[in-house]
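Can anyone check this?
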Amino acid sequence: QVQLVESGGGLVQAGGSLRLSCAVSGIIFRLRAMAWYRQAPGKQRELVALISGTGSTTYADSVKGRFTISRDNAKNTVYLQMNSLKPEDTAVYYCNAFSTNYWGQGTQVTVSS
């Protein structure tokens, strides 16, 4: 059974930082590209960051230079370090095994101005 369990969301002031974690089980994690998506109220879900099995990364333009995606293959965990947070980063953040229908339950990130 595939499971993706996110943690680390919360309420933070603009300019602050949060680190999201996603613990993965049930797939060969080290071979799988992993992604973070987010969905704000009334908006479509969007890709925030992607990391390949070899560690190559891709970011949405809106988060470049502020967010960092990383992975620890020994712990089957992918992370999203979010710095210099803005109110427009407020959303539910989801972990995804890229190009699959395996999703976490989502974690709320709220950035106050």
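Reply from J.R.: I decoded it. The mean pLDDT is 96.
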